Amino acid sequence: MDVLNCIEKTGASIEEATLIYNIPSSSTVWTWKYLLETQGIDALKSKEKGRPSMKKESSKKQAVERSEEALLAEIERLRMENAYLKKLNALVQEERKSQSVKKRK
Asked: Is 18 exposed, middle or buried (0-12, 13-18, 19+ CB in 10 A)?
């Protein structure tokens, strides 16, 4: 902003401003000026560089809640499956018993 303000107030050219502020390339100032004119002052604010930090804590809490619900659902499913298999086993044993009684007669 200092460079662009200097250009506006003093009427200096972009090349003169790059020399005053020791900026290696005048194209940088051209880009700043273009961004200011097209997108406003927010476009000149520095942006964070690099990868964003991983936020595991919040996702862990959600994962724990989800996994707890999933475990409860799996327990319920396994209980139903176990009850079904017990009934099926009882029916098979009853049928075998009735067949063996018929054969004896």
From this structure: buried
